[in-house]
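Subject: Basal-body rod modification protein FlgD structure
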Amino acid sequence: MDAIPPTSAATRSPAAAKPALTSDFNTFLRMLTTQMQNQDPLNPIESADYAVQLATFSGVEQQVKANTLLSQMSAQFNLLGMAQLSGWVGQEAQSSAPVHFDRTPVTLTLPSVPGADRAVLVIRDAAGNLVAREDVPPAGGPYQWLGADPSGSPLPQGLYDLTLEGEQDGTVIATAPVSHYARIEEARRSDGNLMLILRGGVQVPADRITALRMP
C-alpha cells in the first residue's frame, strides 16, 4: 500500500480553515437558540428583538470583513510604493525638509512673494532657536546659502530649518517654506507612511517630494 502523505496546510479540511468570523457566527446562533429555549414562557421575547440582534451581529460581521479587506489593500499599496521608492535611493530629492549643513554651500530654491519689496531668509537650528536672518532676492529662484551667522562666521554643522518672510513696507505679509535638493539614502515604511531618509538623517514623507534629479 502506498503511504499516506502527511497533511499539509494546503490539504487540510475546509473545517480547519474556517475563518474566525464563521466560528463567531455559529457561536452567536447557539447563544440565540439557548436564549429562546430558556425564555420566560409568560413573558416571551418578541420576534422583533431576535431580528434586531441578528441584524446587529450581521452589521458588525460585515464591518469587520470590510476593515480586513481595507487593511489588506493598504498593505499591498504600501508594498508597491516601497518597490517604486527603492529606485529613488541614490537620487537627489527636492523638499522643504530641514537642511543638513556641513559647512559647504547649499543651493536653495526660494519662492517668490507677490507684492513683497523685501525678502528675508530665516534660519533656525534643530532646537528651533533663531540663529540668523539674511536678505535674499524678493523675486525668488535659486540661491546659494553659505550657512553664515550674523557676523559672517560659518554656522556649526547640523540641521537647520529655513523659511522665507516676504515684507511690504516693513510688515511681514507672507511666510513660505524654502526647498532644496538632498541625496536619498534610504526608503522605509514607518507607522504606515512611506518615508525617505535624506543625507544627514533627515526624514521626509514621500508625498512631500516635489522633484527628483540624478546627482
